[in-house]
């Protein structure tokens, strides 16, 4: 006889177990998402094996994308052995590539492979922007121009007008996490104007969750950090609707 559902729930992840896959070079996703974790929710990380390769140009960045694609399902398969309820994509560039329709197909295929629903940062940012009512946006990214064009295309496909874009062109995957808050703060202050209704930060290894809350208050408009938006959407898609302060309006109001 099968065990009663109550007796088979995880002792710590009794509300939800999230599998989170991120590049092996990524040092930001795990602390960001652990900071947002609620009682009864646990995060279980899988690493997509990639080297800290040179990504100083467009061809190099495309090589990184191909390396992530080649290893993604291996990481997902390892994660699924803990029987998680949902899968969170802690890597964002793949889910902006080739436009929104292609990303929707990619997301569906990954969910079928994993056997659980999947949350991805691109779609989470879209959802957060639509809640804010913003249509004219600015974007900050750690990527090279080839990927920045893909990010712009995705948001345009979603119906947004991209008025400003700052690509940091970080030279390696690990170097993305070396970008300091003061650098990001200066870029936002320099590029912001009254036409821009919201800012979005992409690149899950770029640390901007805390700074986004600070700059939202300073600029008087939404500043959406991709790791926060992704975890928020994962919680809501998992049916966890707790509202809580200290992490911005997505978590406190929606």
Any descriptors?
Rossmann fold, 2 domains, four-stranded parallel sheet, 11 helices, 254 residues, single chain, alpha/beta, disordered N terminus
Word description of this protein:
The protein has helices spanning 5-8, 29-35, 58-79, 100-114, 121-132, 145-157, 173-176, 181-191, 209-219, 226-237, 249-253, and strands at residues 16-23, 41-48, 86-89, 118-119, 136-141, 161-167, 198-201, 223-225. The chain is α/β, with parallel strands linked by helices and 254 residues long. The chain has 2 domains: 5-121 and 229-253, Rossmann fold, CATH 3.40.50; 123-225, Rossmann fold. It has a 4-stranded parallel beta sheet with strand order 2-1-3-4. The chain has a 4-stranded parallel beta sheet with strand order 6-5-7-8, with helices on both faces. Helix 9 links the parallel strand 7 and strand 8. The chain is globular, with a radius of gyration of 18 Å. The chain starts with a helix and ends with a helix. Residues 1-5 have low confidence and may be disordered.
């Amino acid at each position: 006889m099968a065990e009663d559902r109550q007796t088979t729930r995880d002792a710590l992840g009794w509300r939800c177990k999230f599998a989170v896959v991120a590049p092996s070079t990524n040092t930001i996703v795990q602390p960001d998402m652990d900071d947002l974790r609620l009682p009864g929710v646990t995060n279980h990380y899988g690493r997509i094996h990639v080297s800290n390769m040179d990504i100083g140009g467009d061809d190099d960045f495309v090589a990184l994308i191909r390396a992530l694609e080649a290893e993604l399902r291996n990481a997902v398969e390892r994660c699924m052995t803990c029987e998680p309820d949902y899968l969170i994509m802690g890597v964002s560039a793949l889910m902006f590539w080739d436009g929104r329709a292609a990303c929707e197909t990619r997301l569906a295929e990954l969910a079928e492979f994993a056997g659980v629903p999947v949350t991805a940062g691109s779609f989470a940012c879209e959802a957060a922007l639509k809640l804010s009512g913003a249509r004219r946006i600015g974007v900050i990214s750690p990527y090279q121009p080839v990927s920045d064009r893909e990010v712009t295309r995705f948001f345009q496909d979603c119906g947004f007008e991209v008025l400003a874009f700052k690509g940091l062109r970080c030279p390696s995957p690990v170097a993305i996490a070396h970008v300091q808050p003061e650098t990001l703060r200066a870029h936002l202050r320099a590029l912001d104007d009254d036409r821009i209704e919201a800012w979005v930060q992409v690149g899950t290894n770029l640390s901007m969750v805390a700074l986004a809350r600070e700059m939202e208050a300073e600029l008087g408009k939404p500043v959406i950090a991709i790791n926060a938006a992704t975890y928020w959407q994962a919680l809501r898609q998992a049916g966890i609707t707790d509202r809580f302060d200290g992490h911005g309006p997505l978590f406190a109001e929606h």
